[in-house]
């Protein structure tokens, strides 16, 4: 089906959401196992543990024996109570990465307790509409020192609905920010797949939203998800890209396929560069990534880098393009924002067999 379709359903008994664009799977969210630690966005009341020299940060105590790792260390003392938010996915056996910079997100707004000021998404360009949204937002934040970002999904929104959304998000942020009494505790859990889909896939507005018990089956989502367990994915033009995570890094290999023409390398590499953000997003992969592009003249590297930068510019996950190594690999660093899909599906399969 053509267009942008949001599918809300279940996958093997887990709440899940999928985003299809012109029939292609663009994003996927699956509820983690009950045994998994809270995901990105969860907010804890935490207690500072002892400083660890040489670690570049400090560990904090979280509930249920969990540990968090905080890079902001200025002015912190052991035993101090503070509020932290999970900022990334932790590898097995490692502490959860957390931050002091709290974000309270809704579909239309983001409250930023540590960053005051009123801001509008740059994607809202029309002058009169920006002025209208600013006025609504300013009125909704009277008497509050927190910052506010009005998201692009608010463009054209009814004033009362936007004000209500901001008020609810503000109330949650104020309540949590004052809750410093006591020991380690989970105060706000990470949003589930359906809530996240409504919040983050609202702009541009979907052409269709399909939800229900049979929604995933109707769109063949499970088959598309299982295809992601294959490390090799086809590319337009006949090439392929192989993506294989290891303990140290994610290795990516680009092949031209049957095309042996002089331009085959650059053609396959550009196709891989354009699809790499989607593949990493769907597979839940991050950390250090090394790409072995297909052979091509060195003069074409600048063209390929332009394609890579354009492809990752629209990504939600923070990505740093490090550049070429002496051996001709291209390295990049991507934030670990999700549990790897292979781990999620392995847990699902294990539960099915139990």
From TrEMBL:
Superkingdom of origin organism: Bacteria
One example of a Gene Ontology biological process annotation: rRNA processing
GO MF term set: endonuclease activity; hydrolase activity; metal ion binding; RNA binding; RNA nuclease activity
Coiled coil: none
Listed GO CC annotations: cytoplasm
Pfam families: RNase_E_G (PF10150)
Keyword field contains Acetylation: no
Keyword annotations from UniProtKB, A to Z: Endonuclease, Hydrolase, Magnesium, Metal-binding, Nuclease, RNA-binding
RNA-binding protein AU-1/Ribonuclease E/G domain ranges (all copies): 105-207, 214-336
Cofactor requirement: Mg(2+)
Protein name: Ribonuclease G
Source organism of this protein record: Frigidibacter mobilis
Higher taxonomy: Bacteria, Pseudomonadati, Pseudomonadota, Alphaproteobacteria, Rhodobacterales
């Amino acid at each position: 089906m053509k267009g942008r379709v949001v599918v809300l359903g279940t996958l093997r008994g887990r709440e899940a959401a999928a985003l299809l664009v012109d029939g292609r799977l663009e994003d996927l969210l699956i509820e983690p196992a009950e045994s998994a630690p809270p995901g990105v966005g969860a907010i804890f009341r935490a207690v500072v543990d002892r400083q660890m020299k040489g670690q570049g940060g400090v560990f904090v105590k979280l509930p249920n024996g969990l540990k968090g790792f905080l890079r902001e260390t200025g002015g912190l003392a052991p035993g101090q109570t503070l509020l932290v938010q999970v900022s990334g996915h932790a590898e097995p056996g490692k502490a959860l990465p957390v931050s002091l910079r709290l974000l309270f997100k809704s579909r239309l707004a983001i409250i930023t307790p540590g960053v005051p000021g009123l801001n509008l998404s740059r994607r809202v360009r029309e002058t009169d509409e920006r002025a209208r949204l600013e006025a609504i937002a300013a009125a909704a934040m009277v008497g509050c020192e927190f910052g506010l970002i009005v998201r692009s999904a608010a463009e054209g929104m009814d004033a009362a609905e936007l004000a209500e959304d901001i008020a609810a998000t503000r109330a949650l942020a104020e309540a949590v920010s004052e809750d410093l009494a006591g020991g380690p505790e989970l105060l706000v859990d990470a949003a589930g797949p359906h809530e996240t889909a409504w919040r983050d896939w609202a702009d541009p507005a979907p052409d269709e939203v399909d939800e229900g018990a049979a929604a995933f089956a109707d769109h063949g989502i499970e088959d598309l998800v299982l295809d992601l367990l294959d490390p090799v994915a086809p590319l337009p033009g006949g090439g392929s890209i192989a993506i294989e995570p290891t303990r140290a890094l994610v290795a990516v290999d680009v092949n031209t396929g049957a095309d042996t023409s002089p331009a085959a390398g650059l053609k396959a590499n550009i196709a891989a560069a354009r699809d790499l953000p989607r593949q990493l997003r769907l597979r839940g992969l991050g950390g250090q990534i090394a790409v072995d592009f297909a052979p091509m003249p060195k003069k074409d590297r600048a063209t390929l880098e332009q394609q890579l930068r354009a492809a990752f510019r629209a990504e939600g996950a923070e990505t740093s393009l490090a550049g070429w190594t002496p051996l001709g690999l291209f390295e990049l660093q991507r934030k670990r924002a999700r549990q790897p899909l292979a781990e999620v599906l392995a847990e699902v399969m294990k539960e099915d067999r139990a």
